[in-house]
Amino acid sequence: MNAPHAGMLTVPRLSRRAESLGTENAFVVLAEVNALARQGRDIVSFCIGQPDFPTPRYVQEAAIVAIKSGKHGYTPSAGIDELRAAAAHDMGARRGLEIPPEDVVVAAGAKPFIAYTIASVTDHGAGDEVIYPVPGFPIYESQIVANGAVPVPIYLREGRGFAFDPAELEAKITPKTRLLILNAPQNPTGGILDAQELDAIAEILLRHPHVWVFADEIYSRLIYEGTFDSLATRAGLLDRTVISDGASKTWAMTGWRIGYAANRTLAPVFTRWITNTESCASQISQWAAVAAITGPQDTADMMRQRFRERRDLIIGLLNQVPGIECAMPGGAFYAWPNVTEACRMTGSSDSEAFRKRLLHEAGVAVLADIHFGRRVPGEGQHIRFSYATSKDAIEKGVTRVADFIRRSVV
Description:
Elements lengths: L15 H5 L4 H14 L5 E2 L11 H12 L12 H15 L8 E4 L4 H10 L7 E6 L3 H9 L3 E6 L10 H7 L4 E7 L11 H12 L5 E5 L24 E6 L12 E4 L4 H10 L6 H12 L3 H21 L15 E2 L4 H7 L4 H12 L1 E2 L1 E2 L14 E4 L4 H18 L2
Parallel strand pairs: 1-10, 3-4, 3-5, 5-6, 6-7
Antiparallel strand pairs: 2-8, 7-8, 9-12, 11-12
């Protein structure tokens, strides 16, 4: 028998789970942007959703102290007591809830709790359904599919301030529904859920006690009018709701990888998942997060104010661009302009074709609506800008978009 050719790669097949696993397209587009930058192209990038500020100095110093004092080893899988207590107090105080530290679990970022929750409340291949927002963070659908559940999209409507119709939610709940995913403030639209909308959702869920809720509230500190509100504050829903939050967005700590979630029933289950996967979050990062939460909040307040100023700037500029209309987002740091007319004007077949042309012909990197799930029927074409960048970059980038549209009119 002849041996395989030296250059051939022969490996066993992958699982259907691995082959179905999705990705976060912001990182895919970023790789494309970086490749163009290496070629010498001048690209203004709006594609990555992370604060462009440094982590506050006092947080950095806390990490250095942790390193120098020998805090290098494993911690309990649920996290160090000090961080669980600080996170419980902070999440509770901002939501008007009493959250005991033992209900809180720390992980390497908030993202793992999406998978841990879906895996904890659905059974693989049993037809269990998960309702999730579209457009929405792409990892929701990816993890629903990878965990063998059935993805059921609920559409966010521009005319509703990128909330969904509660009647649509009620229509989509079946005996097979196991989980509802909520995200507010929302990625990619910047939409929020106001008190009236949360009340309507709560009323529906009280009629369906078999449904869990995953409340992705990672942008809870980045709301620009009024105060943050959470479904978990509604009567009868705290016990059924996983409150997910973290350090990444509030204190510019994306790379430190610290997230935390609160739910009394699921906390020990999440702890076992962490023991089975990551063992624990970085001890050094955990001590830094304790400092972030309990220390002075002037830097976090400053960042929030800068984001608000940038929001007002980019929305004002986008609404002056031919063929673009952009609603004012209530939170996070994303703009979600409607580019249906811009696509028509430039002869672009859809938002993805328009995105590619902006990148290669105008030197502007954005994401398209299809990077956040299927397009919402009847809602047209959209792209996403992350305004977690400088005012100069915002002005330069939007000017390039306007110039591209004007010179590309067919």
